Amino acid sequence: MANGVTSATAHRYDDATGAWHNTATYVDASGAHYYDANGPVRLTFSDVPAGSQAIGYLAFLSSTGDLRQNGTLVATGVTSATAHRYDDTTWHNTATYVDASGGHYFDANGPVRLSYNNVPAGSKAVGYLAFITPSGDLVLNGTVVDSGVLSATAQRYDDATWHNTTTYVTASGGHYYDANGSVRRSFTVPSGSKAVGHLAFLAPNGDLSVNGTSVDTGVLTASAQHYDDSTTTTHNTVTYTTAPAC
Predict the structure, then answer these.
(1) HEC profile for 149-179?
(2) Domain boundary at 74, 98, 116, which?
(3) What gap in Å lies between CA 216 and CA 175, rounded to an integer?
């Protein structure tokens, strides 16, 4: 797809017509780009400065703190950001980010802007509507989900309804929260494990588990995502790397 890539993220979504989209947002020496395998479609963004980082769907964060999504300057002075696409009856290109004034959310469809007064400067954006504060509070759409959080990710997905979810780790183990119904689940994972996506954890010894199931061992990096396709079939997926065979 591309060579000489310095940063990249990837995202699967299914649009309101039921069409699938396996996408990547990335930066190389020539600039910032987007690729959709359905087509395929390729876009290049000339307004993204050299040295920027791909931080999510169609989104880039420059070294000076400019956050751009799909050619639009969303905010300046940004210290942390993620970006996510989801579709309900229409499309939503969203960014969750932190600047000196605190935590914020942007949806290009509208546009819609939200700010969270319980997310202070110095917090980290960890996914859709989600932040970890400097004190370890995990905040999802303004609600404190848990405290003492060590790592977290967050994702929105839609089946017949909406789900704002976060997967995270505390000293007591791995956890999952869905704001729709306030569903909570816990998983036994080794101390020092990291949340690496929807229902997924990577242990210090390289064990990768998704939704309580061991997927593989010797894992070096991993990223997990949930999506529902046009048949409303559920997919809990993980993409990961292991050490090459000798």
Answers:
(1) CCEEEEEEEECCCEEEEEEEEECCEEEEEEC
(2) 116
(3) 20
Edge to edge, the sheet with strand 234-242 lists 213-216, 208-210, 200-202, 194-197, 219-228, 234-242
Last residue of a domain, one of 93, 116, 139: 116
* DSSP letter assigned to residue 244: P
**Type of residue numbered 6:** T
For residue range 13-68, list pLDDT tens digits in order: 998 888 999 999 999 999 999 999 999 999 999 999 989 999 999 999 999 999 99
pLDDT score of 230? 76
Are residues 204 and 214 located together in one domain of the fold? yes
Tell me if 163 is assigned to some domain: yes
> Does 103 lie in the same domain as 60?
yes
Are the beta carbons of 211 and 225 closer than 8 angstroms? Answer: no
Strand partners, 169: 151, 174
Domain around 52: 1-116
Neighbours of 77 (CB within 10 A): 14
Angstrom distance (rounded) from CA 225 to CA 241: 15
Give residue 213's identity as a one-letter amino acid code: T
Buried b (16+ CB within 10 A) or exposed e, 103-120: bbbbbbeeeeeeebeebb
- Are residues 10 and 21 located together in one domain of the fold? yes
pLDDT per residue over 102-122, tens digit each? Answer: 999 999 999 999 999 999 999
